[in-house]
Specification:
Length: 107
Amino acid sequence: IEDPEAVDQIERILAVPGLTGIFIGQGDLSAALGVDGPTDPAVVEAVAHCCRAARSAGLPVCLLTSGAEQARGYAADGVRCLLVGTDQGFLRKSALGARAEIAAALG
């Protein structure tokens, strides 16, 4: 679920025969809504709406989480599939760590 049209039609999407769950792409949804990011209230409400609808339909939701606190909040909302990062995020974190290590070694 990555655009406002999908959010608006979530109940119809969840009723598709054979559907086994949904993934909500908060980054793409943020871009489609024209807001700064996943913490914008419009995205937060869209995610909550989709989670409520999926829970009512008895289907699981998968989301990308930015950390433990956000994961706890999503879990409290019934989300059971949480991605803890992306390849870009892991590479960036590793590269920044390596840079800091070298900078510290060189003084």
